[in-house]
Amino acid sequence: PKMIGAWRDAFRQPTAFFGFVQLSTWCGGGELAEALPAMRDAQMGAAALHGVAYATNADHGMGCAIHPAFKRPVAERLATAALAVRYNESVRWRSPRYVTAEQTTPQAEGTVTVEISLRDVSPAGLHLRRPFNYFSPGYAAAAPVAVDCTGSTPVSPTANVSMALMCAWASLLVDGVGWLNASAEATAGGRTLLLSAVLPVRTSSAARVLATSYGYGPIPMLSAYDAGTNLPVLPWNTTLQRAAPAATWAQPPYAPATTATQPPYDTRFFEQRVDHASPAANATWRQRYLISEAHWGGPGSPILFYTGNEGPITGFWAACGFVTEVLAPRLGALVVFAEQRFYGESLPFGRIGSFSPAALALLTAEQVLADYALLLTSLKAQLHAAESRVVAFGGSFGGTLATLFRAKYPHVVVGALAASAPLGYYSPTYWKERGVDELTWFRTVERVYTEAKEGCYETLVRAVHLANATARSDGRAAAAAFGLCSPPEDADAFVFWVTEALESMPQIDYQDAGSPVNATCEAVRRELQGAELLAALAAVTRRYYGVATDACLPQTSARNLQVAGGTPGDGPAPASSWGYQSCSETLHPFSIPPGSWRPYRFSLPALTALCRQYYNVTPDLHRLERWSGGYAIAGKDSGHSNIIWSNGRRDPWHGGGFLRAADALPGGAVFVMDSTAHHQDLRLPQTTDPPELTSVRAMEERIIRGWLRESGVGG
Question: CA 227, CA 242: separation in Å to the nearest integer?
C-alpha cells in the first residue's frame, strides 16, 4: 500500500489504477518457507485501496522457480480485474476468500470436520480439481511429471530442506495432536468447503480443531476453484473464531466503543443563530460542542472537526478514538465535536418547545451545516487560529454531513473523512445505475447472518415467528420468556422491538465487541425448538438492549413506537428529531423481502399520511439529492475534491455509499472493506481489528497529512 501511495504522489495521479499479482511459487533456498505465504497476505492489504485490483498467481507456479513461464492465466485475471475496477464493467474478478470456520459433526467415525465459509463465490459455486502446481515446470501437454512433495526430496542439491516443507495442502490443527492433512469437499451447493482429517488411533472423537490451513506455503496446492470464474480459493492459515461469552458484546443500540484513557475535553456552548436563511432573524440559541486542546500545537496547527449527527455529541466522541486518540496527538491537532441542532442539549427552543412542527421546520441539513461553518469561523477567530486548517470527520449520517460540509463549504474545511455515509440512499435518481433498490439495505442484513453460520438467518426467522405467535396467543408466556414485568399490550410494537435488535446488530458487528452477529448465531441454534428457541431469542434481544439478566423489563420498554411506519433502519416517528428528519429529508424507501421475520413493503402514500399526521410534512425523497447532488457529487466534472469515503460490507448502510473506484475524487479515496461494520475506521484501533482496517486507517492518515501539507500546514 505504501508503494502505491508513493507512486501516485510522485506522478500526481491520486486515482491511478494499480493491479498487483499475488506471488507465485518459490522455495527460497528454504529460508523463506514461512515468509512467502505471509508476504502474500501482506500484499492483499493493498486490495483495500481505491482503484486497486489483484490477480493471484499462487496456483500457476513452476515448483521452486521464482519466474513461472506460463503467464496467460494471470494476465487474463488481471485484465478482467481492470475491466471491473478501472472501467466499471459488471464482471466477477475476485477470488473466493476465507471468512469463517466452524467445526461440525464428523461425517465418519475417527475423523474431524470443519466447514469453511467463503466470500466472493459466484452463483456457479465451487468445484475441485487436481492442483496445477502438482505438475512439474515445462507445461508440456503430454506426460507432465508430478512434483515430488515427499520428505525425502531436497529442495535443491545445496539446500538441506525437504520438499515436504514447501508443498502446502489443506490441513487441520487438532488440540493435543498437531497438524493433520485434510481432504476438501465442496458443500452447500458449492458455497462452502468441508475439510476433513482422519484422527490418529485412540484419539477422542470429541477432539477440538484449533485452526485450519489451506495452501499456506511456498508451493500452494490449490484444488478448490470457482466454477463460474475459474478463480482459485485463496490460501489461508487462521485459528477458528469462537463466539465470545455473551457478556462481552452486550451493547445498547449505537453504543460507542469506550476506552480507559480518553483524552479530556471541555464542554462549551456557542451562541448560534436560529435561522441562517433569514438575515432579519437575530434570535440565537446555545449549541453544545466538545473541545480538547490536549494535543494542539497552537495557532497554525490543524483542527479536527466532527460533524455531529442524530444523537448526543458525547456518544460520538467516545466512538471516534481514531480521531481523538490517534490522529490528534500525531498531528498536534485541536479537536472539536459539534452537536447537531435539535439533539442532545442543543435544543433551540428548549426541551418542550423544540419538538413542535413549527420549531422542527428549522431542522434541515442546510441549517446544520451553516451552524458548523459559523461555529468554526468564530472559534478560529477567538483562538487567533486563522491559519489553522480544518479537516471534517463524520460517521453514518454524520458522514453524509461531512461529505456535504466539504462540498458546500470548501473554504471552511480542506477535506473530509466520511465513514459509512449513506448519501446514496437519499439519491434515488441514480439507484438503477448504481444497482441499488428498496431491498439493498435488508439484503445486507440477511447476508451477514447467512455468512456467520449456515441456517442462522432462517432460524432467526423461525424464532421471531414463534415470538409473534406467542405474544398474540399467550402474552404471559411471552412475558416470561423475555423477562417482561407484564404481558405485551401491543404485539406489533413488541415484535418490532425484537426485530429492531436483529436488524441493527450487523451494523455494530465489531470484532472488539465480541461480534454480536456471530454470538447471536451461536445462541439461536438451528436445532432449538419451542420454549428453548424462544428463550434463546429473548436472551440475544435483551443483550442487545443492555438489559441485565435478572431485571424485570416494563412492557413499555419492550416496544418500538415506530411500528406504525416500520421502515427498516428507522423512519417516521412522533415527537422525535430523527422522526421529523425522516419525514422531511431522510426517508428510507426500504422494503423487506417476503419470507423474512416481518413483512414490510415501502408505501410512500402510507408514510406520507403518517408524516402529515405527526408534523404536517410531506416527504420528499429527492430533497437532499436536489440540494447536494447526491451521487452526482462523485461525478467526473463535479469540481469536488478531498473527500475520503469508507464503508464496510457488513454494514447495511454501505449499500447507499460511494463504493466504486471511479467515485474517488481528486485528493480523495474510496475504501470498501469486507470485514468491517458501521464507521469502524473511526473507532479506536484494537488488537482484534482485521488487517484491512489497519491498512485503511494508515492510508486515511497519509491522505489527511497530504491535505494539510498542500494547504500550508505541516503534515
Answer: 30
Instruction: Identify the three-state secondary structure at position 227.
Output: coil
CA distance 127 to 190: 7
Q: How far apart are CA 215 and CA 195, in angstroms?
A: 13
Question: Does residue 195 register a pLDDT over 60?
Answer: yes
53 closest CA partner among 32, 74, 27: 74
Q: Which residue has the cell 406489533?
A: 492
Q: Which residues of 619-631 are buried (b: 16+ CB within 10 A; e: fewer)?
A: bebebbbeebbbb
Residue 660 DSSP code? S
Please state, in angstroms and rounded to a whole number, the distance separating the CA atoms of residues 62 and 136.
7
Question: 3-class SS at 256?
Answer: coil
Burial (CB count within 10 angstroms: exposed 0-12, middle 13-18, buried 19+), residue 510? buried
Q: Helices 365-382 and 397-408: crossing angle, nearest 10°?
A: 70
SS3 (DSSP) at 479: helix
Number of Cβ within 10 Å of residue 647's Cβ equals 28
DSSP code string of 260-325: SSPPP-EEEEEEEES-TT-TT---EEEEEEEEE-TT---TTS-EEEEE--SS-HHHHHHT-HIIII
pLDDT for residue 138: 41
Quick check: 431 and 656 in contact, CB under 8 A?
no
Residue closest to 669 by CA, chosen among 643, 648, 695: 643
Q: CB atoms < 10 A from the CB of 607, how many?
A: 23
State the SS3 of 349-405.
CHHHHCCCHHHHCCCCHHHHHHHHHHHHHHHHHHCCCCCCCEEEEEECHHHHHHHHH
Would you say 101 and 116 are in contact if contact means Cβ atoms under 8 Å apart? Answer: yes
> Radius of gyration over alpha carbons of the chain, in Å?
27
Find, among 242, 210, 678, the residue nearest to 452 by Cα.
242
Task: State the Cα–Cα distance between residues 583 and 567, nearest whole angstrom.
Answer: 12
d(CA 90, CA 85): 9
What count of other Cβ atoms lies within 10 Å of the Cβ of residue 38? 12
Question: Residues near 430 by Cβ (< 8 Å), separated by ≥ 6?
Answer: 424, 436, 630, 631, 632
pLDDT attached to residue 34: 61
The string of DSSP codes covering 569-624 is T----TT-HHHHHHHHT------B-TTSSS-B---HHHHHHHHHHHHS----TTHH
Across all residues in the chain, what is the average pLDDT?
A: 87
More confident residue, 418 or 202: 418
DSSP for 159-214, written as a single string: EEEEGGGTEE-EEEEETTTEEEE-EEEEEGGGTEEEEEEEPPTT--TTPPEEEEEE
Residues 697, 663: Cα–Cα separation, whole Å: 19
Q: List the grid coordinates of 370.
A: 451553516
Region 233-237: mean pLDDT is 92
Paired sense of beta strands 390-395 and 415-419, if any: parallel
Query: Residue 584 and residue 363: Cα distance in Å, rounded?
Result: 9
The pTM score is 0.67
Q: What is the pLDDT of residue 606?
A: 93
Residues 6+ apart with CB under 8 A from 1: 45, 46, 48, 49, 695, 698, 699
What's the average model confidence in pLDDT over 133-140?
54
Contact 137, 63 (CB under 8 A): yes
What is the identity of the amino acid at 136?
S
Q: 245 pLDDT band (50/70/90 cuts)?
A: very low
Place of cell 483562538: 383
Query: By the 8 A CB rule, do 652 and 676 touch?
Result: no
Residue 20 has pLDDT above 80, yes or no: yes
Alpha-carbon torsion 619, 621, 622, 628, what sign?
positive
| Euclidean distance between CA atoms 280 and 134, whole angstroms | 80
